[in-house]
């Protein structure tokens, strides 16, 4: 088994995803087909089976086998395509925190200046970034960037209010931040400490979490899954009725099998 696991790890990530897809199609050849707005792939998406160990159930139809985008990355792309109808980004500066590989080329071409940052200098995919930043104390001047993106980052930060305040500080007048967090609760649950079984989250966020942004920003426009076609598969398709589970003991059961994702755009 160790040899097989090592062989899988040595494969090109895209090839490995398509192997995963092939195994799923062998069990269910009639899976729903979707369209990826990131890479334009058309076909079935992959279940994220590793979520079973964390949340007790997989995230179904989650990953694009071609570019590796998740629901949040596809929603992020569609949000910026919508914003670009009204905003000319060609002269603006973007700071992308914990940048996802699948959208890096798009943002690099969209903005005049594209800077990537992470606390550890590399993302979870091993991609090098431009700056090492601690979001609770950002070593950058005031009003340095027009746009900041930090997707599924704030839920990892204990002093989230300091991080939100710092992001606001480095934004220029007329700028905005896109700060999505995973919505996994009816109302926000503070864990008290990082749950390392749940990706190091320090809280389980509910929709009320966005009220914390409202204290720092002039206005917020919240995009959600239903704002775009279902062909893009922007929902968390997951059984959450059995929560809590041992790895996430503070989460509470949520009814339904299809849960919306949200992208708050916070304007200065």
What does this molecule look like?
Helix content is 25%, strand content 25%. The termini are far apart. With 268 residues, the protein is of the alpha/beta class. The protein is globular. The N terminus is likely disordered. The strands form five sheets. It has a seven-stranded mixed sheet with strand order 7-6-5-8-9-15-12, sandwiched between helices. The protein contains seven helices and 15 strands. The chain has a domain of 166 residues: Rossmann fold. Strand 1 and strand 2 form a beta hairpin.
Give keywords.
about 270 residues; alpha/beta; Rossmann fold; seven-stranded mixed sheet; two-stranded antiparallel sheet; 7 helices; about 25% strand; globular; disordered N terminus
Helix percentage:
10-25%
Overall average pLDDT? 94
- CATH level-two architecture of one domain: 3-Layer(aba) Sandwich
Estimate the global geometry from the Cα principal axes.
globular
- The ordered string of helix (H) and strand (E) elements is HHEEEHEHEHEEEHEEEHEEEE
The CATH top-level class label of one domain = Alpha Beta
Give the count of helical stretches.
7
Record the strand order, biggest sheet. Answer: 7-6-5-8-9-15-12
Structural class: alpha/beta
**Main sheet characteristics:** 7 strands, mixed
C-alpha termini separation = 53 Å
CATH topology of one domain: Rossmann fold
- CATH homologous superfamily designation of one domain: Vaccinia Virus protein VP39
Low-pLDDT segments, ≥5 res: 1-7
- As a whole number of angstroms, the C-alpha radius of gyration is 19 Å
Strand tally? 15
Range of strand content: 15-25%
């Amino acid at each position: 088994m160790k040899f097989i696991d090592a062989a899988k790890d040595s494969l090109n990530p895209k090839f490995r995803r398509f192997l995963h897809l092939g195994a799923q199609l062998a069990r269910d050849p009639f899976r729903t087909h979707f369209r990826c707005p990131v890479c334009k792939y058309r076909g079935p998406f992959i279940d994220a089976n590793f979520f079973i160990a964390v949340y007790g159930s997989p995230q179904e139809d989650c990953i694009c086998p071609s570019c590796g985008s998740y629901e949040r990355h596809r929603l992020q792309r569609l949000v910026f395509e919508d914003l670009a109808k009204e905003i000319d980004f060609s002269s603006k500066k973007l700071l992308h925190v914990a940048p996802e590989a699948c959208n890096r080329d798009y943002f690099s071409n969209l903005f005049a200046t594209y800077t990537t940052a992470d606390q550890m200098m590399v993302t979870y995919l091993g991609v090098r970034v431009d700056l090492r930043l601690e979001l609770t104390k950002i070593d950058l001047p005031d009003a340095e960037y027009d746009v900041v993106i930090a997707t599924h980052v704030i839920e990892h930060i204990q002093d989230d209010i300091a991080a939100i305040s710092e992001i606001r500080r480095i934004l220029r007048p007329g700028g905005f931040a896109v700060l999505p967090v995973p919505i996994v609760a009816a109302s926000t649950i503070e864990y008290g400490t990082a749950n390392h079984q749940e990706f190091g989250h320090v809280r389980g966020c509910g929709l009320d979490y966005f009220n914390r942004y409202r204290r720092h920003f002039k206005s917020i426009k919240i995009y959600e899954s239903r704002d775009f076609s279902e062909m893009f598969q922007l929902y968390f398709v997951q059984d959450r009725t059995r929560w809590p589970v041992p790895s996430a003991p503070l989460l509470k059961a949520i009814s339904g099998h299809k849960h919306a994702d949200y992208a708050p755009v916070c304007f200065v």
